Amino acid sequence: MASGVGLPTTNTRTSGRIGQYGLQIQYRTLSVRVEERDLPAKPKVNADPADAIAAIDVHLIDVEDVYTRYSTHPTHGLEGAAVQRKAKDGKNVISSPPTQYWKKACNYVFGGFNFLMWIAFILTLISYQPLGEPDPQPFVLGVAILLIFVIAISATFYALVDWNASRIMRSIKTLIAEEACVIRDGQQQLIPAAEIVVGDIVVLNSGDRVPADLRVVQTSSDLRFDRSLLTGESDMIPGVLASTSNNALETRNLALNSTFVTQGNCTGVVFATGDRTVMGRLVSMSGEKQFKLTTIQKEVWFFTKIVSCFALFFFGLSLLLYGVWLRVTYPGYETTSTAIVNSIGCLTAFVPQGLPICVALSLTVIARRMAKRQVLVKNLATVETLGCMSVLCSDKTGTLTTGKMVVQNIAFLDHHCSVKALLEKLAESSSPTDFAALKIVHQIARLCNAAKFDAAMMDRPIEDRAVKGDPTDTALLRFSEGLSVPALDIDTGNTLKAWRRHFEIPFNSRNKWAMTVVADKNPSGSVWMFVKGAPDVLFPYCQSILRGDGTLVPLGSSERERLSTLQNKWSSEGQRVLALCRRSLDGIKLDLPPNTMEELMYSELQDLTLVSLIGIRDPPRDDVPSSIETIRRAGVRVFMVTGDFKLTAVAIARQVGIISQEHINSIADVKLAASEKVPTRSRHEIKPQDDDPICALILTGEDVSSLTSADWDVIVRSYTEVVFARTTPDQKMKIVQEIKCRGDNTVAVTGDGINDVPALKAADIGVAMGAGSDVAKEAAALILLNDDFSSIPVAIEMGRLVFDNLRKVTLYLLPAGSYTEFMAVFFNVLLGMQIPMTTYQQVCFCITNDVVMSISLMYEKAESDLMSRKPRNARTDRLTDWRVFVQVYLFIGLMLWPSAMGMWFLYMSRQGLGFYDVVLVYNQWKDGWRGYSQDQLNHFVSVGQCIYYVTLVFGQYGGLLAVRNRRVSILQSNPLWGPRKNLIVPCGMVATALIAVVNLYGPGIQHVFGTTPIPGMYWGLSFCFPLVVLIMDELRKLLVRTYPKSFIAYIAW
Question: What does the pLDDT look like over 605-633, one tens digit per residue?
Fold first, then answer.
């Protein structure tokens, strides 16, 4: 059986003195003493992190001294006892930066609209004393106490929501299994990255995150690191063995924690873990992470500033009118203390206190829902942006397909068949030498392969073993491991023993091939170059081809045509096709420096012998076709962007529903359309129209390189179904950038590999698969932990839902708050009427009805048509627009405040006070007015204020039920049962009604705030108004549904 470690590479960049460690176990005790003597002491708690980084010197010593310092061995690694001893130093985890709780507390207490409440509180205290002297009113002090209570409740709620959201996000992030490949006890093992210890030998491949600080001791010639997370620079940094700088942050022979291997592979010795790594020390130096506002938070903050400015303006205007007009013209109408307290109503009226709370709450709600789908959302901005997604550019392998590749077909010059059929023929054949070329296929598949089995799983069946490597190499590894033909001397164990790797050029997206130079271990053994890669790339380098029996024949035009036809056939069935090639390198010196060797191998890439073609099947994920159908129904165009062959890409695109048209246009059609004269449009208008036909397009990477700006205009404007094939990482990024800058497109990219990283970073939303590379997951904003593609339409729906619900919250809050409550202050100041709603009632309404009922809206489920609407335009579609204000001020608001004011005048009229006995009265409202005593007049005002308050409480029920649906009738989506059931709505209604009862009938509240019970008829009449609001809105929705092109539909929100 093959070793889990695989075949060692001896002629890459490494020390030439490894052999001296063959007797390492014999001096283990001595090495422990050396370790204890040489390893730096644990840093003190108050040690300066900058000094600790400056003291790093491991990059300055020789490779062999690295092994000695850390008591490890280049091929054996650490022993179990050493690991247990070193593990006492702590987990390899970077601690979070210390939280500055005082800053958070200040934000909770003074953030949002709380600063207006503080202004109101301070002014109320001043109104109580000294302005309330000589007879300060308990009512004023009660309002002050209530305001500070409101501030405390708001701050507590902000803190609880923030804590809960942080807890949920932390629990989701723990679902990401970060693993590392280490050599321990002579075997490669996959272990949790947190269990790495100093002295571990870590093996890194392309796409891996560096799990700790490593000194590089072995490297491929093309090793590159991405240190952007550490340094902020986007350029790839080459990895070498020798020190290039005395500065540990600048030298290139260290692989630092949280950086990424973007190309090549290497081995390193761990010299620091956890908080002792460079990244850990930088985190401790940097302090708390700076908070950034999300898109909706910015919009709400902008809305908050506008509302606050209006509130302060009208508050100041009210006081100004009192000072220069009312106090002079109508002396005795109001005292200074009363004028300030009544004017505070302007502050409370304009404050939609529930809105900031709902924005904070939305993260918790959405994070919990996404967590159930095993989706890691890095921040709320991701979900918001998903709601705007208009184009989804998806990689193929591992994203649309399972990524679990299986070798299905194999072809030689003289015949081709499935692997199963080939093995059956071998079993039945009397002359196995007819298939002698299969041995060479096995050698190339096993030796020209960067994938490796986990040594801990070698006793399991081949298909159940964990593999470290990309899907293509994994498929070839499993194929070669399971291929055993004694008659042809095909055995994996013998192959690994007989050959030694000397040099490798790993696969990359630009070359489209991988190369390995191997040598027979016999003294007079041969040397071969093994190459595997894309047939269309390698065919030009091939001059000969093998038959199935191993005989060599020239590769002429007829043979090339036959093989190209076979490649196209397999590709059209959705298979990935690989060419396996070789060339003899006998007589070529192999002991060259890595860079020289690399240049030599590129020059020797010629006169290859084509051994066979391999067809690898990678079936689409089961959930992809239905998910793409849902995404397209939501108005989102889905493009495929892949490095695979175009026929393979088109075949998979048809299977999953990205391509639905029989005819597919090409680059020629794009060029023709671009040459036609069309009216000049702004970039914002370059998008398909609703009545445009569905058109499909296939472009290759070569085509992408030739596209002009006019060509891109045609592609973005005219095509709904596009497949980009044979693209490089740079071309993928260019595709995303060109689409983003046209048609106000919000572009999402899905991918799982290193070649997807530039596009993931360039996209508005990067979506990575949980099984993808570490660097892809770092670049993405959203990670599908269980690789469930169907989570994408759910995430789109969540993004649309959070915006939809916040807009509904705004629609609910504004009619009663900044309209109906403000009208009470307006009538008091400008129309000389006793204020129909006290400051206490306004503040109470703000913190109870506004908050409780708006929270219920955040738990609303998606409307039935949410995923059939067009994507929201992030540039033009705002949280509040003119349609929202029409609904607020010219529809619901015009029913609410006249209803409340009408109930006030109805009660006054039943007491014998007509309209002009209440309005424009000013300072005449005193003892003897219309024959009433002052106590009677005060009682009338108290009852009228409570009626106004109760009418507003019940009236908002109609507003709430009205805004739950944009178009659908409440009969089809009520909150009590059915698909839109939301029991928080009726619970909120009951709660606010009970609060109103307590306010009117609570003895203590009556004594302090002057509330009083109201006649029963006004309870009944008040309950009729929400029905009126709801019925009127149902009629509006009916008109919108019946006449979708009408003016009513045009102005509908």
Answer: 999 999 999 999 988 988 899 999 999 99
Three-state SS string over 276-310 comes to HCHHHHHHHHHCCCCCCCCHHHHHHHHHHHHHHHH
Task: Please tell me whether the peptide bond between 486 and the residue prior to it is cis, using omega within 30 degrees of 0.
Answer: no
We find that the CATH architecture of domain 69-92+196-286 is Distorted Sandwich (2.70)
Beta-strand pair 608-617/406-411: antiparallel
d(CA 1034, CA 1037): 5
The structure tokens 């900058």 sit at 50
SS3 207: coil
398 contact partners, CB below 8 Å, separation of at least 6:
471, 752, 753, 769, 771, 772, 787
Residues carrying an active site annotation:
395
- Answer yes or no: are the C-beta atoms of 321 and 315 closer than 8 Å: no
CA 547 to chain CA centroid, Å, is: 51
Task: Supply φ then ψ for residue 771, to 5 degrees.
Answer: -90, 5
352-368+801-864+880-1051 CATH fold: Calcium-transporting ATPase, transmembrane domain (1.20.1110)
- Angle in degrees, CA 934, 937, 939, rounded to 5: 110
What's the rounded Cα separation, in Å, for the pair 485 and 480?
A: 11
Backbone region of residue 112 per phi and psi (left: phi > 0; alpha: psi in -120 to 50; beta: other values): left
Contact between 576 and 644 (Cβ < 8 Å): yes
Number of helices (H), then strands (E), in the chain:
40, 29
Domain with CATH 3.40.1110.10 in the chain: 406-617
pLDDT of residue 677: 75
> Is 288 within 8 Å of 98 (Cβ atoms)?
yes
pTM of the model: 0.79
Question: For the residues 301-309, what does the mean pLDDT come to?
Answer: 78
